[in-house]
Amino acid sequence: MAKRTFSTLEIFLIFLFVLMTGITVALLSLSFITSGTTENHTDSGFPTTQIPPATQGPTAIQASPTPSTPEPTLFQNFSGYHIGVGRADCTGQVADIILMGYSKTGQNARGILTRLYSRAFIMAEPDGSSRVVFVSIEIGMVSQRLRLEVLNRLQSKYGSLYRRDNVILSGTHTHSGPAGYFQYTTFVIASEGFSNRTFEYMVAGIMKSIEIAHANMRPGKIFINKGNVDGAQINRSPSSYLRNPQSERARYSSNTDKEMVLLKMVDLNGDDLGLISWFAVHPVSMNNSNHLVNSDNVGYASYLFEQEKNKGYLPGEGPYVAAFASSNLGDVSPNILGPHCINTGESCDNANSTCPIGGPSMCIAMGPGQDMLDSTQIIGRIIYEKAKAKTCKPALGYSFAAGTIDGFGTLNFMQGTTVGDPSWDSIRDQILGKPSEEIKECQKPKPILLHTGELSKPHPWHPDIVDVQIITLGFLAITAIPGEFTTMSGRRLREAVQEEFATYGMLNMTVVISGLCNVYTHYITTYEEYQAQRYEAASTIYGPHTLSAYIQRFRVLAKAIATDTVANLSSGPEPPFFKDLMAPLIPNTVDRAPVGTTFGDVLQPANPKYRVGEVVEVTFVGANPKNSAENRTHQTFLTVEKYEATSATWQIMHNDASWETRFYWHKGLLGHSNATIQWHIPDTAQPGTYRIRYFGHNRKQNSPKPAVILSFESTPSTFDIVTTW
């Protein structure tokens, strides 16, 4: 191989990479020198089918079937289920924390577009003999630590009622939520530390959503709907998909799964309670230039559905709960215009996703809108409109660092890399040691960039204990997938589980792929896709036979359910819960207001008058929004309020969960900051007098006393919305 030469920029980035990695590993090692425990689913409408009461209960391969302690039911003499739904805020930090998903250095949160919610659904037999809990959470993915903590708290509160075998936690996979809630070293480094305030905020939100669902359980019925969604997705690795056998591809009309599976829940009076929708699309309409926490396209679909059903309520409030959960989205993008070179406009839909001028960093996939926010709402509305119808050891390859057409990597890596680079290999070897011949041979044709399965300091870099789980409701089976299955991987798993059920007498089962559940293990490609070594394959950390292993384990589960032998399954080892994780790299600082001002003072007021379609903007003396993840005196950063003359009161029209508002935080020096609130006035806004209010928390410290977090609020002058000037 010819000797590689580097540009000045690349030399600087290499130096920076080595320096940051070295410092991080050193800090981690020092911090954890006494590291802790190691415990172990085309028509204009959906066909609608009512799900009969389940004859088989939920199961999981690693959970011992602990006898539940059923609570008294309302009544048992009906055909259906007891159903409970709940929703709670799980946003976490919205500043001074990296956003989880793109792994882009510098993509820190700087405010909020929408809040993030945990949506819980409990479905139980009338006699209480079995129940299942499905929770869809608007975060990047569910970490093992998050699941373990939720399960521990559920056990403390409810005993054996909610357990490891009947609870599924699933992340929507938004790439615009906070990081910092992981325990394995790869993710701790990517998160730039462990944020306990975000972790606790998420756990509390998940628990609250389950508690609300538990308290609101009532008799009802569940219906399953199916239909195809067009115009919302493309395959972002089509060259990899083409590696799958032609005979297999010929059975499908598309290189993405277009089918949406939807569970509709109603009470015995026919009143709507909620829904769960599974559809394969990546929530990456908001690209890696975004700095506002938000729930992306599937979150917008939830927002639209809940606003329609919960009329008169603010976003995030009201009894109806709609979850748009993740499925086999591994190679599926919402950026339907496809990849183009942003400097020349030509297509870069090639095996390496690279441009003739500028390389892979110029190759970006575009959504259908004028900007990323417009694209988010277009894709979210398409999904919403369809749902509204009646009806080896782990290792990361070089292409992992290349990113995807939805978000390229920072350094000069390309997708489709099957040969290592001696320069990067040398850097890796000096810092982390050489990968063994065993792992190099097992992972072929992946050239190993990081041999995470052989790295254990300060803690293991990737999980080696992985939960696999199936829960059933009548003839619906939900497979809980601990990662991102590609389109064909999901199809193979779905067919295998259906076949296993049918073999043992459970015919016509509908199998749903529910992605990013319980623990995150990156991507799962087919063996054939693995050979191309694009991003998804390079991120298939357990090697080329990962999918086969998952299929084998899920067949075991399906057989056990069909033959009623779940009790005979081994519970498997318990996953670890590590102690003493690395603190966030961004320290806490005292907030300071400029001399002569105080927190919440108005620096730029609103104009006196606006019309529909314009943007109201007010800037305040601010404080760090991450304080609000600790002190939760205020449940929103902003409100937009309208004066009602008849009652002489102010009515809240919008909060920070509304897609019409924006909250931007501008960080200054020495604890100084500003906060800007925008309201994009919608067509539905009525003429009248309005005001925008700001709610925050500032960190104060008088040494040697410990720091305290104080709440404040600001109510600037009013403005009018008029029809004419």
Mind explaining what this structure looks like?
This protein has 725 residues and is α+β, with helices and mostly antiparallel strands. 23% of the residues lie in helices and 25% in strands. Strands 1, 3, 6, 7, 8, 10, 12, 13 and 14 form a nine-stranded mixed β-sheet that branches. The protein has a seven-stranded antiparallel β-sheet with strand order 9-4-5-32-33-29-27, with no helix packed on it. Strands 28, 30, 31, 34, 35 and 36 form a six-stranded mixed β-sheet that branches. Helix 7 links the parallel strand 13 and strand 14. The longest helix is centred in the N-terminal third of the chain and has 24 residues, at 8-31. It is globular, with a radius of gyration of 25 Å. Mean pLDDT is 86; it is low at 1-6, 23-46, 54-70 and 398-403.
List keywords for this structure.
about 725 residues; alpha+beta; nine-stranded mixed sheet; seven-stranded antiparallel sheet; disordered N terminus
Mean of the pLDDT scores? Answer: 86
Distance between the termini: 71 Å
The outline comes out as globular
> From the helix content, strand content and strand pairing, which structural class follows?
alpha+beta
Count, helices: 14
Residues in β-strands, percent: 25-35%
Number of strands: 36
The helix content, as a percent range, equals 10-25%
Spans where pLDDT lies below 50 across 5 or more residues: 1-6, 23-46, 54-70, 398-403
- Main beta-sheet annotation: 9 strands, mixed
Give the C-alpha Rg: 25 Å
EC number: 3.5.1.23
Pfam family, one: Ceramidase_alk
Domain Neutral/alkaline non-lysosomal ceramidase N-terminal: 81-389
InterPro entries: Ceramidase_alk, NCDase_C_sf, NEUT/ALK_ceramidase_C, NEUT/ALK_ceramidase_N
